[in-house]
Amino acid sequence: MTATDLQRPTGATPPEASRPTPSVQPRLPLGERLLRTPVVLPLVTFLLLLVLWESCTRLFSVPSYILPSPSRIVLGFESVSAGRWAEHIWATLRVALLGYLVSFAVSLPIAVGLAKSRLLSGALYPLLVVIQSVPVVAVAPIIIVVLGTGDAPRVVITFMISFFPLVVSMTTGLAATPPELIELSRSLRAPSFREITQIRLPYATPYIFSGMKISITLSVIGAVVSEFVAADKGIGYFIQFSTSMFKLPQAWAGLVILVAMSLLLFQIVSQTQRILFPWSLPKGQK
Amino acid sequence: MALAPNAIAFSGVGQTFLTGTGAVTALDGVSVTIAQHEFIAVLGPSGCGKSTLLRLTAGLMKPSTGSVSVFGLPVTQPRDDVGIVFQKPTLLPWANVEDNVVFPAKHKQGRVTREDRDQTQAIIETVGLAGFESRLPSELSGGMQQRVGIARALFLNPDILLMDEPFSALDALTRETMGFELLRLWQASPKTVLFITHSISEAALLADRVLVLSERPGRVIADLPVPTARPRDESSLGTAEMQDYAAHLRSLLIRKDAA
């Protein structure tokens, strides 16, 4: 190892003096520091908005079927038993996750095909764009008639809404591999599948996760849309049922649950990437 | 040396690429023979087909005209006995130093044996990366990343080492250090080296012979043995004969640029 080389590695232990310890750093006043904590600022904003919402609805006596106050929404939660909530949540979650899995399983081979073969890409890509352009909400009733009751039509609808970002991100990722590594693979005369599994797929990981993050929230939307069309369970069904009975605080409670479900699923995908593939995160997010 | 077979022989090699705007001739009538364990530097302006020469030798493309042979046999497909070092290290960002170095074995055979691991350790020590085995590429300096790139190219113990401007992305100091490192490696374990570069001093310092290519279509306009004996060091470039030699190379390159 040479002197010039040793100066730059970021991982090498630097001399003690050059690494500032936290206790040496000047400290900001408590208020300033709290404001700079990433969670605090949006949380405070959110709470202030809730207070504003609550006071406005009370002050102007807004009827709850127009806009229920946060406290009324909380009552909406309580008007349904925990068991019933769990049933609805599970129905929606199951369809969303199944649809998401189907999207992933279908997208991967399609993306490999699109990235590897120009012919296939020319033949299939326009077709995929056409499928993506079909307003799924409009097709949903047809799908329900064709596939009947049960989870199958709902999973198909969810799949149709959530698969496209996955195909696009996977294809882009698989094509983003540096050409030198493909040459290296060719020069080693390695089998083609190993070029996919050992080079292209790992290289596509950051792209695949971008697509997965978009798709997971779309999956929840897909599940809800399918429940609007035909279902006797699920949060989407519950919201529609509640509005038809004019129980708006209850419908709002369902909406809150949907948002929470989306956020939670998104976080699960994000954290999976952070824990399993930390190298794939953009610089500064590790 | 005289009895050894030619490691690489180009005879009448021409390379034409079809592009959207017509045919582009990258190489034209290149005939050069390279002896075993000879260190050849290739100098030339950008786009003159230097890298094409390298890819032809590796069997990654076929010449439009003429033929390329390695150890007397025509190159028809990628060869195992050729190691490539690219301009950018192009390491696997998810794999640590050790896994990057052993990658050719893993990629070729699908698994890594006990012997491969021992071999990895030996090569890592040779290129001066001992102690950095478990670092990720993003945690290394540019020079160290390229050391990993060289180690990876050496892993299958190739007879021929192809280097495509390997140090051009490094800062001047690191570049010089890496040049001497390469000389040290080459002297310890001789290989036939085809070294593409833009740097006249780098070519003069490292090579036995320097090939100067013309602008597109690339032809060999000079094939000049480096006058200074080995081993060479920092002072080698300062001698009068080396300065004359470098000046001559420069004049060959500049005359073409003006034309």
What does this structure look like?
The complex is a heterodimer of chains A (286) and B (259). Chain A has 286 residues and is an all-alpha fold. Chain A has one domain: Orthogonal Bundle (MetI-like fold). Chain A has helices spanning 3-6, 30-36, 40-59, 70-78, 82-116, 118-133, 136-147, 151-175, 179-187, 192-229, 235-244, 248-276. Chain B is an alpha/beta fold. Chain B is globular. In chain B, helix 2 packs across helix 3 and helix 2 packs parallel to helix 4. Chain B is built from seven helices and ten strands. The longest helix of chain B has 19 residues, at 240-258. Chain B has a six-stranded mixed sheet, with helices on both faces. Chain B has two domains: 1-81 and 160-259, P-loop containing nucleotide triphosphate hydrolases (Rossmann fold, 3-Layer(aba) Sandwich); 88-157, no CATH class. At the A-B interface, helix 9 and helix 10 of A face helix 2, helix 4 and helix 5 of B.
**CATH architecture identity of the largest domain in chain B:** 3-Layer(aba) Sandwich
CATH structural architecture of chain A: Orthogonal Bundle
CATH topology name of the largest domain in chain B: Rossmann fold
N-to-C SSE series of chain A? HHHHHHHHHHHH
- Strand-residue proportion of chain A: under 5%
Number of strands of chain A: 0
Oligomer: heterodimer
What's the CATH class of the largest domain in chain B, please?
Alpha Beta
Overall mean pLDDT of chain B: 88
Quick description:
With 286 residues, chain A is mainly α.
Topology readout:
The complex is a heterodimer of chains A (about 290) and B (about 260).
Chain A: H1 3-6, H2 30-36, H3 40-59, H4 70-78, H5 82-116, H6 118-133, H7 136-147, H8 151-175, H9 179-187, H10 192-229, H11 235-244, H12 248-276
Helix pairs in contact in A: 4-12, 5-6, 5-8, 5-10, 5-11, 7-8, 8-10, 10-11, 10-12, 11-12
Chain B: E1 6-19, E2 22-35, E3 39-43, H1 50-58, E4 65-70, E5 73-74, E6 82-85, H2 97-109, H3 114-126, H4 142-154, E7 160-164, H5 172-188, E8 192-197, H6 200-206, E9 209-213, E10 220-225, H7 240-258
Parallel strand pairs in B: 3-8, 3-9, 6-7, 7-8
Antiparallel strand pairs in B: 1-2, 1-4, 4-5, 9-10
